[in-house]
Design brief:
There is one protein chain. The protein is of the alpha/beta class. The chain is globular and about 55 Å long. The chain binds nicotinamide-adenine-dinucleotide and uridine-5'-diphosphate-4-deoxy-4-fluoro-alpha-D-galactose (UFG). Uridine-5'-diphosphate-4-deoxy-4-fluoro-alpha-D-galactose binds next to helix 7 and strand 9.
């Protein structure tokens, strides 16, 4: 079975490529390298002893994309490529809408033209917006009060996919709604290494641990949560990657969405304490004002994915910290 992976040199895509290659799938990757490095391919080869075919192209370049579909027959597409920085999307909405929406529409048109009907799409918990309850189940209505343009692109793409699946029942589409992916492959050979000052908690903790940033600011300690800091559902990226392989077997006519999360929320303070335990020394941190747009807490109800994808998480936040420390040591 041949799988086309868009965004396959990125953080999550590269972990899924490793799982696919290990399970014997043939893989071709498309990425424009706007947020990843070509050296990831060598690292994938070190882990799997296989090197996937790579095309450095932009999904916005429709004629070149068409050519890729003409040259190869794909059984399945996994679509990770997209821009994902929440704050940047608010400053540059047109760039985000163009890249994420136009890129996806180009891909879908090529798939339809070439009769490739199996699709697994990287969605996000952000599609739920602010539903007013912290535990998200797939039957909650999506799209209310989504605070960023990034989040709205994920919601809009899901709507496009639903319409497409109705219009053309040949399509078998699954959207996987990720909660907070963290960690990396236990080899320490691939992982997430953002440039500049990170926005997300895990990479920020790592930069403080490396001494590249002086201290972590914990945004808000007066939330109505058990310790006053925000709670999220952090999922190890290897568990997340395995969820994609489980989803392949569940593809069927129409559109279906699944939460990929652990179901157990962890607070920012608990994350800091876990890191200190694993790393064996204190992590400099201070309490700062709340960050605009943050919800106090939310987590996945993963029952549907547990049941219908026959998938569940097995790794912990401790595993994620241990693997991320190993990744940093390999840099
Ligand atoms: P990433 O930035 O590491 O990977 C995305 C990849 O897509 C990058 O390698 C980038 O170069 C590529 N890309 C972007 N636009 C492209 C284009 N027009 N043409 C070709 N390649 C392009 O991000 P990630 O964390 O691996 O996320 C993968 C997907 O999962 C994204 O769609 C993201 O929105 C979604 N997601 C991520 C998270 C998270 O916290 N990491 C949470 C929910 C959903
Ligand atoms: N946090 C800090 N200090 C930091 C960074 C983060 O205290 O320096 C806190 C945040 O306030 C939040 C928690 O750590 O409470 C997690 O923050 P992240 O930025 O790591 O993740 P978010 O939950 O804000 O964002 C994630 C994804 C987005 C997605 C969003 C909503 O990264 O892609 O969930 O689903 F849009």
């Amino acid at each position: 079975m041949k799988v086309l992976v868009t965004g396959g040199t990125g953080y999550i895509g590269s972990h899924v490529v490793v799982e696919l290659l290990n399970q014997g799938y043939e893989v071709e990757i498309i990425d424009n390298l706007v947020n990843s490095k070509i050296t990831v391919l060598d690292q994938i080869e070190k882990i799997t002893n296989k090197k996937p075919i790579f095309h450095q192209i932009d999904l916005l370049d429709k004629p070149v994309l068409e050519q890729i579909f003409t040259n190869s027959h794909f059984d399945l597409v996994m679509h990770f490529a997209g821009l994902k920085a929440v704050a940047e999307s608010v400053e540059q909405p047109l760039r985000y809408y163009n890249n994420n929406l136009t890129g996806t529409i180009n891909l879908l048109e090529c798939m339809e033209n070439h009769h490739v009907y199996n699709l697994i799409f990287s969605s996000s918990a952000t599609v739920y917006g602010n539903p007013g309850i912290p535990e998200y189940t797939e039957n909650l209505e999506t799209g209310h009060n989504i605070s960023s343009s990034y989040g709205k692109t994920k919601y809009m793409i899901e709507e496009i996919l639903k319409d497409l699946a109705i219009a053309n029942p040949n399509f078998n589409i699954i959207a996987l709604r990720y909660f907070n992916p963290i960690g990396n492959h236990p080899s320490g050979l691939i992982g997430e290494d953002p440039n500049g000052i990170p926005n997300n908690l895990m990479p920020y903790i790592m930069k403080v641990a490396k001494g590249e940033l002086p201290e972590l600011s914990i945004y808000g300690n007066d939330y109505s949560t058990p310790d006053g800091t925000c709670r999220r559902d952090y999922i190890h990226v290897v568990d997340l990657a395995k969820g994609h392989l489980s989803a392949i077997d569940a593809l069927e006519s129409g559109f279906k969405a699944y939460n990929l999360g652990t179901g157990s929320p962890v607070s920012v303070l608990e994350m800091v304490q876990t890191f200190e335990k694993i790393n064996g020394k204190p992590l400099p941190h201070k309490f700062s004002p709340r960050r605009a747009g943050d919800l106090p807490e939310f987590w996945a109800n993963p029952s549907l994915a547990n049941r219908e994808l026959n998938w569940q998480t097995t790794l912990t936040t401790e595993d994620a910290f241990r693997d991320t420390i190993s990744f940093i040591e390999h840099q």
